[in-house]
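Retro notes (design track)

What went well: tokenization of the new backbones is finally stable.
What didn't: we kept losing track of which sequence belonged to which structure.
Fix going forward: every design gets posted as structure first, then sequence, in one message. First example under the new rule, 489 residues:
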């Protein structure tokens, strides 16, 4: 429903004079009381005067921007704050503590109030966070942790370096003059650096998160990854497990001591598959000067005046010496780069010279014996057999029965020999002789020159023989030898 403006005005004019009087009287009385109280407080500001007027001061308690409650005595809050800080300082003697936010007290004067100090303190205790004053240590983009004293920070770099450099090396590096020469056989550090900058700043944290220097060093070296364990399943092998976790075989063996490529994995076995990457690396550059041996080489010269198969040493070899200066870069104790700075040859090596004969003759052997049959196998080796010494080897089961000369030479005998049956002996004219026995037939004559691999007879079972085979003997300078030392088998 809409009401017209004139209607509203008419209604206002109907207000009784009595109501207007009461309204104005009340307003004047309130103004008068306020004026009197203000003047009285200005004229005499003593506590007694305030008490006479029943005005008291209360305090609104804030923690940061959060209102907690009210107290009627600001000392209640001071005593609470001092008490908890004192108890923590007694428990942790090496730490200083502070509230994570500010406790503020805003006073207010009131005629009447209802305060409960203990409830306000209890509410405050539930929200107050107290941290230890600390120094935050950062490496690159990573926060390593917190330490309690700034003087500790100066030791971090040294402690990291001393993980990979001895105290003696570090002291020598710090004291050595730049132009001091290095002696042969010695090494020294020429530079030490860190891969990342270590920074720190004032901070605060829970006392349980304050770390020792050893803990800071360990985190910096190993990173912050937590170990992950893999449980071996059916069909798993070490290579597939490594590949599935982006690891090399050397990585997975390094983080699982005792595991090798040949290790037999069992279902249910657990393997560590986490490679921790350090937040920071210690880079050490060393220079060293070493005396090294230059190994001599063997030079072979062919000589057509020397029989093939004969070698003579014309000149003995002698190693040389050189002095080499190296620069080696180490990262966390592992060599990652090596360069040769300079090299000086002190003694040149002397090559060993060998004369190799190339002179050949159809009647002179090469010294390398060929298999004297067409295939076959060794049915009996040289040595004791049936109570007697078997002087050669027996070859049986060939593809055909041809007997072949084991090397170039001259037939020295061809005929019947007791026990051996039909026998051929060949002088290879190099100190070696070969003998072929139990032949069915002989195809060469005494004095005939034969070549390696030439057919000289047929395999048989003549003489003292138990079946078709070849009995083969070898002599060197008249002494019986084992054919297996000369045959290419």
């Amino acid at each position: 429903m809409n009401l017209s403006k004139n209607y509203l005005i008419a209604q206002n004019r109907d207000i009784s004079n009595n109501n207007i009087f009461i309204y104005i009287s009340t307003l004047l009385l309130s103004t008068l009381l306020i004026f009197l109280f203000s003047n009285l407080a200005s004229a005499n500001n003593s506590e007694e005067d305030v008490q006479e007027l029943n005005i008291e001061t209360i305090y609104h308690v804030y923690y940061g921007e959060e209102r907690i409650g009210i107290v009627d005595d600001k000392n209640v809050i001071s005593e609470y704050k001092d008490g908890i800080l004192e108890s923590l300082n007694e428990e942790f003697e090496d730490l200083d503590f502070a509230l994570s936010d500010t406790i503020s007290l805003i006073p207010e004067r009131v005629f009447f109030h209802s305060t409960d100090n203990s409830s306000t303190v209890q509410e405050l205790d539930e929200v107050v966070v107290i941290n230890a004053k600390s120094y935050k240590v950062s490496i690159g983009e990573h926060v390593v942790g917190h330490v309690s004293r700034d003087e500790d920070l100066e030791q971090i770099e040294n402690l990291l370096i001393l993980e990979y450099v001895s105290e003696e090396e570090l002291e020598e590096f710090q004291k050595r003059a730049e132009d001091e020469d290095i002696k042969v056989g010695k090494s020294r550090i020429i530079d030490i650096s860190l891969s990342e900058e270590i920074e720190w700043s004032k901070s605060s944290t829970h006392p349980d998160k304050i770390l020792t220097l050893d803990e800071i060093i360990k985190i910096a070296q190993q990173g912050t990854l937590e170990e992950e364990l893999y449980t071996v399943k059916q069909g798993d092998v070490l290579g597939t497990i490594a590949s599935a976790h982006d690891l090399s075989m050397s990585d997975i063996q390094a983080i699982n001591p005792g595991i090798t490529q040949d290790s037999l994995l069992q279902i249910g076995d657990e393997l560590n598959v986490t490679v921790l990457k350090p937040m920071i690396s210690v880079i050490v550059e060393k220079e060293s000067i070493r005396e090294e041996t230059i190994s001599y080489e063997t030079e072979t010269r062919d000589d057509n005046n020397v029989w093939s198969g004969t070698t003579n040493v014309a000149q003995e070899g002698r190693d040389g010496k050189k002095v080499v200066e190296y620069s080696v870069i180490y990262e966390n104790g592992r060599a990652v780069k090596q360069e040769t700075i300079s090299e000086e040859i002190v003694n040149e090596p002397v090559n060993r010279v060998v004369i190799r004969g190339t002179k050949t003759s159809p009647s002179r052997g090469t010294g390398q014996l060929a298999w004297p049959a067409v295939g076959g196998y060794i049915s009996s080796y040289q040595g004791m057999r049936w109570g007697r010494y078997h002087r050669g080897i027996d070859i049986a089961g060939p593809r055909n029965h041809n007997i072949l000369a084991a090397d170039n030479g001259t037939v020295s005998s061809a005929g019947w020999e007791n026990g051996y049956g039909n026998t051929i002996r060949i002088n290879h004219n190099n100190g070696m002789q070969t003998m072929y026995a139990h032949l069915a037939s002989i195809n060469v004559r005494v004095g005939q020159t034969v070549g390696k691999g030439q057919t000289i007879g047929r395999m048989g079972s003549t003489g003292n023989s138990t079946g078709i085979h070849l009995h083969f003997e070898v002599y060197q300078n008249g002494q019986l030898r084992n054919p297996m030392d000369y045959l290419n088998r």
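Added context from the reviewer: Residues 5-40 form one domain.
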